[in-house]
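Sequence design from tokenized structure. All designs in this work follow the same two-part layout: the structure record, then the generated sequence. An example of the structure record is given first.
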């Protein structure tokens, strides 16, 4: 029953994103917080995915955190028929919903063991892991700004 409720709720939420794109289109990019989620670079990337993969973009977009919402909004902007959107989104959700439910169940049932294992790792190791993640994020941000600066017309 949990899977059915999760599956249905996810599809309804995805339909909200699709409907926003269908109803408001690029006007969304003028308003915060949509401006943060729908930068032009991300919109262009997903539009190229639609050109390359067609309807399967909705399926693959469901799998990629960070572009899922944008994919569904752009599907609405592109006037993808709702029946086709639901079909490809449903197929994608058939993969992701059970995956996350099983992962949640496994992590939940073994939570004490995971915490015990994590406590064995030294504080220094966690600090190093955090530093590496932070450096990767900063590098990605710097790379993105450099790329945007190169693309600006002079």
């Amino acid at each position: 029953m949990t899977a059915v409720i999760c599956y249905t709720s996810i599809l309804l939420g995805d339909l909200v994103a699709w409907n926003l794109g269908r109803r408001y289109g690029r006007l969304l990019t003028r308003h915060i917080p949509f401006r943060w989620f729908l930068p032009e670079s991300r919109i262009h990337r997903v539009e190229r995915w639609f050109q390359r993969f067609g309807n399967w973009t909705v399926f693959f977009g469901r799998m990629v955190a960070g572009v899922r919402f944008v994919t569904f909004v752009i599907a609405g902007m592109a006037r993808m028929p709702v029946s086709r959107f639901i079909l490809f989104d449903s197929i994608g959700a058939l993969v992701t919903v059970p995956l996350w439910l099983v992962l949640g169940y496994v992590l939940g049932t073994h939570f004490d063991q995971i915490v015990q294992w994590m406590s064995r790792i030294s504080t220094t190791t966690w600090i190093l892991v955090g530093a590496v993640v932070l450096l990767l994020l900063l590098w990605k941000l710097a790379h993105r700004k450099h790329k945007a600066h190169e693309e600006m017309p002079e």
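The chain has a mean pLDDT of 86. We note this feature because it recurs in several other targets discussed in the main text.
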